[in-house]
Amino acid sequence: MAAQQRKTGLGKGLGALLQQENIGVSNSPSSSTPAPKTPSSPAGSINFIQVAQIAINPFQPRTDFDEQALRELAESIEVQGLIQPITVRQIGKNEYQLISGERRLRASKIAGITEIPAYVRTANDQQMLEMALIENIQRENLNAIEIAVSFQRMIEECNLKQEELGDRVSKNRSTVTNYLRLLKLPPVIQAAIRDGDLTMGHARALINVGEVDKQLFIFQEILEKGLSVRKTEQLVREVQQADEKRRRKPKRTDQLDFQYQKIEDDLASKFATRVKLDLKATKGKGSIVIPFTSEDDLSRILELLDW
């Protein structure tokens, strides 16, 4: 069935509003002249389109829909009708592709509505992806991972730079960068963000940790101890400071490593205990550490030193 103007008997909602605005839509049973059918839908128009003729948007960034929320929306549509039209593009005779409004379309199907109001727009694939993303960000509260995936798709599929992407979605570059960096986190952490077990604040702290094993350690600490964002940031700083301290520790050459290791082994044999050479940053300086386990053990070591 071709897209056509509002048919009689669809109930309340947009039909009543359009009738009040006198835009040529009839919802009255007494109307003597039926609304004309059109072979195609002009861009920018509002038409009532068969739900069966509308294909889902392949660029939809949202992957999870709250079933309870959909049922509640469906009940509202049954009573009030669909007030806000969806947006589609025409891809063939009596064939349309959804641009935005998938929740409304899904809820209408649940409500048993066979025909819904839609804006018909002209859009290419890039515009489809951009409009779907922007509509969802503004109205559907995508989770951070869904936003990050959508941003990545726009960069790759629409050949956008981060600055251009920021302009499209009204975000500054640093915000876009932070979202994209989420995709570098381990899958288990991404899943926790997606499922709401980890906040964006926790995630921003974790992306500042370079090594995966440390990210996973901090992640487990967050879950097990219920760390706040501030506590998480503090733990991240402590981990980074420990890493920096290790990086500043002087490194021996392979030859020196071998020589010092031999000295340590020889001393360990002499004193029958593990001996450690503690080298300082200044070349040629350091200390010898000989641990003891008791006063008798100390006396034994002192005898060996001829003390």
UniProtKB/TrEMBL annotation:
Keywords: Chromosome partition, DNA-binding. It comes from the Bacteria. GO terms for cellular component: chromosome. GO terms for molecular function: DNA binding. Residues 26-43 have a biased composition (Low complexity). One of its GO terms (biological process) is positive regulation of sporulation resulting in formation of a cellular spore. Residues 21-43 are annotated as: Disordered. Residues 47-137 form the ParB-like N-terminal domain. It holds the Pfam family HTH_ParB. The keyword DNA-binding applies. NCBIfam families: parB_part. Belongs to the ParB family. This is ParB/RepB/Spo0J family partition protein. The lineage of its organism: Bacteria, Pseudomonadati, Bacteroidota, Sphingobacteriia, Sphingobacteriales.
